[in-house]
Task: inverse folding
């Protein structure tokens, strides 16, 4: 490392400044661990009470609040009949986010390619601005649009059409019901994560690919071959990183999903149109009921759900940032 | 050259699909804008700004004031911590500590907002007995905005030219003087851009506020604890689920107002970016 002359003298104001800023750095560094540690400690009775059944159970029941006595397990008590199984929510979270990525990844790559190679240079700033505006839409507004426009459309058009013509495909036939559910949640999530991915993929393509594109063209490929065999492989770290960040975002998205997912409890979806629920959505929708649990176990179990979501998103993000660290700063910061 | 012609045709098909995807994305975006504008703008009457919500409808005065109060308080909290930690990262940290710090901040930006909200609910609202309150809501927003502010400040401070620092040192400036008279003024536009982007994000948040700020039909006071605060996103979420046309109109009005505020903030922020930074240094 090159010596930095302005660092030599550290007296007076400098010492104060250094102490203050390192405190601030410690605070922002500690926040994430503090949150995790606190939630784990708070959820500990629930972790003991629920045991592994938390991850495999499908019934979420805060128990009979008017009954007498209590059930206890591993030394921790809850109301009679209480049972906290999170599999429905874990499944719903992974299913909506996974399906979202299946659609969003090719969609975002195609949109980014069109933005870079097929939009007239004069229109580029406008197209870029539109994509960036899209990522600024508040999630309740997506949810509002989902409730009023998307859900009725799925219920009235998509669902009946799928039942009539595509019913032979597993997980598609069997009626659309109210329109709230897996498909609606996935559709909204695709809309929400696509701009994030497009912005990153566009930037990594623009910053890395000019020479590769030119070289492939010089070797006689078509423009599409130059892009798919030359450019895209060269930016795969950027694409993978943006994919993981988008996946993390989808896993944790709350309001928009809450408004269109149908709020399934204790039941798995049998087709694309049935209600689901995600961990994030259930934390919002179940807290009021959890507060009525006089043993407090329901509230602690919600904290255990938060811990599960935290750990999943944390792992996804750590992997994403590690993958992206290899790319240049632009990709890293997007 | 038959295979070349086939490859060309296949390429043309894919490019067509690619352009179609772009058009579809923009069309969907515009349809969401149009939906909010058509339903929200007619509902956005002047008296909404002067009356509070009550019963099934009413106005938005409490929610607007609450939104501004929450975001402003969140910013106040995050400015010190976000800029301070960026300053340490750029000016003092060893390269290793720098990497660790940036990595943590990046990972923090991926923590789901509801997790932040529930953590603060358990810790502050219930644990410390603050109740639904301004301070709890502001802290939730601050944690959520921290990565944006810190990253922007970090990036802006990193672009201060080495020659300018060296020049200042050569003229006899103390290290702290260099920070305040050279680095900070240089980085200020970038830092402000980050604050504006964080503001836009704070304005549109719901999940971290539901269980920290709560909700109130009354105008917010400046009480830090024990008094819930209303905000616009809550109106969108709850009033659209009511079975009354009046409630729906209020939800649409709140949504339109939110979009105007968020996009206004983003446009100003991007104006700063265009003005001050070349494309390669953007944070978004």
Result:
């Amino acid at each position: 490392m090159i010596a930095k002359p302005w660092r030599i003298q550290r007296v007076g104001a400098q010492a104060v400044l250094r102490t203050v800023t390192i405190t601030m750095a410690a605070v922002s560094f500690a926040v994430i661990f503090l949150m995790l540690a606190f939630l784990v400690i708070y959820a500990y009775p629930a972790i003991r009470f629920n045991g592994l059944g938390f991850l495999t159970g499908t019934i979420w029941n805060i128990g009979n609040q008017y009954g007498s006595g209590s059930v206890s397990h591993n030394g921790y008590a809850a109301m009679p009949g209480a049972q906290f199984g999170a599999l429905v929510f874990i499944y719903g979270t992974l299913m909506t986010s996974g399906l979202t990525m299946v659609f969003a990844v090719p969609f975002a790559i195609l949109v980014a390619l069109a933005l870079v190679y097929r939009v007239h240079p004069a229109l580029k700033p406008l197209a870029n601005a539109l994509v960036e505006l899209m990522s600024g839409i508040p999630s309740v507004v997506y949810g509002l649009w989902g409730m009023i426009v998307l859900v009725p459309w799925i219920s009235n058009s998509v669902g009946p059409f799928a039942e009539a013509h595509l019913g032979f495909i597993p997980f598609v036939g069997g009626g659309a019901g109210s329109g709230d559910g897996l498909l609606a949640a996935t559709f909204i999530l695709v809309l929400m994560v696509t701009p994030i991915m497009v912005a990153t993929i566009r930037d990594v393509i623009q910053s890395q690919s000019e020479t590769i594109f030119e070289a492939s063209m010089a070797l006689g490929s078509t423009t599409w071959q130059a892009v798919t065999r030359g450019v895209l492989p060269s930016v795969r770290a950027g694409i993978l990183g943006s994919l993981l960040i988008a996946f993390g975002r989808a896993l944790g998205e709350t309001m928009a999903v809450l408004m269109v997912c149908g709020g399934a409890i204790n039941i798995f979806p049998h087709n694309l149109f049935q209600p689901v629920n995600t961990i994030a959505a259930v934390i919002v929708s179940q807290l009021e009921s959890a507060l009525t649990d006089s043993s407090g176990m329901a509230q602690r179990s919600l904290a255990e759900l938060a811990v599960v979501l935290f750990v999943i998103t944390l792992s996804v993000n750590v992997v994403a940032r590690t993958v992206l660290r290899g790319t240049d700063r632009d990709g890293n910061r997007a | 050259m038959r295979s070349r012609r086939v490859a060309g045709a296949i390429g043309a098909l894919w490019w067509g699909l690619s352009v179609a995807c772009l058009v579809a994305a923009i069309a969907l975006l515009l349809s969401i804008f149009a939906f909010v504008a058509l339903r929200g703008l007619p509902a956005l009457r002047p008296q909404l700004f002067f009356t509070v919500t009550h019963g099934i409808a009413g106005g938005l005065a409490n929610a607007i004031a609450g939104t501004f109060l929450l975001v402003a308080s969140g910013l106040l909290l995050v400015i010190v911590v976000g800029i301070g930690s960026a300053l340490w990262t750029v000016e003092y940290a060893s390269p290793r500590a720098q990497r660790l710090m940036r990595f943590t901040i990046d990972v923090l930006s991926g923590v789901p907002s509801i997790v932040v909200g529930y953590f603060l609910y358990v810790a502050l609202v219930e644990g410390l007995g603050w109740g639904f309150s301004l301070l709890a809501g502001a802290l939730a927003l601050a944690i959520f905005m921290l990565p944006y502010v810190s990253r922007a400040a970090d990036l802006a401070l990193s672009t201060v030219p080495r020659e300018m620092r060296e020049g200042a040192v050569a003229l006899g400036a103390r290290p702290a003087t260099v920070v305040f008279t050279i680095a900070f003024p240089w980085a200020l536009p970038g830092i402000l851009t980050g604050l504006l982007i964080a503001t836009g994000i704070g304005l549109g948040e719901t999940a971290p506020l539901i269980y920290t700020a709560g909700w109130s039909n009354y105008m917010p006071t400046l009480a830090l604890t024990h008094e819930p605060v209303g905000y616009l996103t809550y109106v969108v979420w709850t009033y659209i689920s009511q079975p009354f046309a009046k409630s729906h109109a209020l939800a649409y009005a709140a949504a339109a107002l939110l979009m105007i505020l968020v996009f206004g903030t983003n446009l100003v922020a991007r104006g700063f970016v265009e003005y001050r930074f070349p494309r390669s240094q953007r944070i978004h």
In short: Residues 328-334 of chain A have pLDDT under 50 and may be disordered.
